[in-house]
């Protein structure tokens, strides 16, 4: 069963990527309001992996130092959402948001707050979109910042209530002609993944009905 | 929770907390507004309840706040809005100072109704404190960094530029926004030492020493830099601050200095080489001078001995000649006399050569055509060197005539040919060539125009040591009794006395070339190439002869010869005495005088005799070239030692001119 759950069909992958892109588009609009400039966010791919696998995926390249913005959510499905950047990129992200007139020390000082708010916007965008698609509400905690390597972020090796599966999304930012690559990880337990899959199934059937409607 | 607050009567808590609380309904109208909000907006709760947020804050600029509120109703989202990223409410403290604040937006569900709670927190104190703290900490740092002429660039472990000072923009030509977020590689050659230094981005090695790198300016040019690295950490982040000192000018001036120093060194070396050369030249010149001084003194010594010896030989020869006539016709006595005469004649030949070396021989300088002389002497040369040696003579028609004593030139060439023969015991070839030389001054001569006669053999050659001494008289490499050692000395003396020189080039196994530099005859003189006249054979007798000589022995010998010839002789021992005799009796037919005499020499006497008796024939007897040079010498010459026959011939010539 786990094998079934942890595998996404092509159409499920496409649908999830579609939902995620709707979410980050919403987030991009918020960021644009805040930054006052064009912000492009996109989610090129989606997959379900184990925590261990996720912790390796985020350490791609030589970058083991990571920074994450973490929010818990509860509702039709529950878990933890983490927006993850290589530490160096997070500083780039903050600088593009707060503006280049700030000195490095200012950027470092503002990083915590700005990163929390930016992550909050992006994660809210994704989660709110899922809630909208579901026509249900979810409760979401305030963002907290976590730092460390992949294993620390995904709490590998510790028994956690969040379950062992990770819905793993790549996310590309383009702010002020600067490209930043990060990840969104939704840590969920099995029931939550199943619930998510049902939502995805509803979403797909909704689209199919629309298509049929249009066709008829 | 609100129910509990209400049930417990804790409603005043809402107004007691030290943050702002605003509750909005789904129409974004204010449902609740606590005292803290009333205080910082100056508007009591009753003024705002029931109004929309826009009505309460008409100048609200943050669309993001509205989105966050919408999301909290629509999706249950909680949002954080910070003062750094958002323009929020206009709030002020009791003194009119603006309050910096963050807002947290959260959904609240009560009695199945959804509200939105805004929590407004005052961060003015914290932000101000942080700012003051940072400003205080950074003041000195920025004072240094902003005024530094060096580019200061901070990077993180993956070499991304995080910060740069104003000088960095000036130095590299990039704007700050062009630098931030770029890899520092942008400013470096891709094989730069600094890059390999920073390659391991996990660990920054510590170094005290600046790293020399080639930096790239925005315009594509390169410059030399010394980069110092400083490693620091903030909030668990690693940074490296790089300080770039542009040393292009210094590097350029170092290079110029180095080049100048190299050039100077080269000049010094050249100078040393030249000094060495000059010293060597000097040594050679000194050696040559020493050599010529030595030759000069040997020459003087030789000349002196030869001169005295000549007089003695003259007496011996004269006496023997007379004796031969006087004694009865006895074959044995005649043989002894002939042997004595031959011995004396050989002695005379020897002294002639010595005089030649000493440049004191009597030279009969005439204009000599080499084209004529060479073929005439060829047979004799061939005879001298023998059949094993082939002889080539090369005299081009354009080779000019020379002004030398023809007999001496022949003798010189024979000497050289004999030397060549001795150098080629197994045969070889001998080449005599002549050419016009027009560059004499370059060879240290007085004039430019000479004729060179070169005698080249293919013999064994000479070592340097032999060559150095070759011209010395009596120096010979031939076995004892085989040579006199006077051959080359004679040639040397002859050329020098003729106004030319001799040069020898030789090396062991490479043969020998002797070059004779001879004075070229002027064209006018060359036209008068004389054919040597045959001496008259007519004899005369019965002449009254005044014989002048300070040497009694010589005088007696000469007088005996004259008497034997049938002449009447009166002897005088000095010029003065001769003049007294002539004053008393001017009826002499001829005056024969020696040249070298104390007080009044032969020439002075001759001139005085001429004053008194212009037509008096005068014969000058000389042993060597003391007479003034020039062909204009008007008196008949008689070379010492002379035979009776020579004396007779001279008398014939002198009397013929009368």
Characterization of this structure:
The complex is a heterodimer of chains A (216) and B (658). Chain A is an alpha+beta fold and 216 residues long. Chain A has a single domain, classed as Chemotaxis protein chec (3-Layer(aba) Sandwich). Helix content of chain A is 51%, strand content 25%. Chain A is built from 7 helices and 8 strands, in the order ααββαββααββαββα. Chain A has helices at residues 2-6, 10-35, 51-57, 87-98, 104-134, 150-153, 190-215; strands at 39-42, 46-50, 66-74, 79-86, 139-140, 144-148, 165-175, 178-188. In chain A, α4 packs across α5 (104-134). Chain A is globular and about 55 Å long. By secondary structure, chain B is α+β, with helices and mostly antiparallel strands. Chain B has 5 domains: 2-127, Beta-Lactamase; 148-246, PAS domain (Beta-Lactamase, 2-Layer Sandwich), CATH 3.30.450.20; 261-354; 363-527, Heat Shock Protein 90; 544-656, Rossmann fold (3-Layer(aba) Sandwich), CATH 3.40.50. Chain B is 44% helix and 21% strand. Chain B is built from 21 helices and 22 strands. In chain B, strands 2-1-5-4-3 form a 5-stranded antiparallel β-sheet. A 5-stranded antiparallel β-sheet of chain B has the order 7-6-10-9-8. In chain B, β18, α18 (552-564) and β19 (568-572) form a beta-alpha-beta unit. The longest helix of chain B is centred in the middle third of the chain and has 79 residues, at 248-326. Residues 530-537 of chain B have low confidence and may be disordered. The chains are: A alpha+beta (216), B alpha+beta (658).
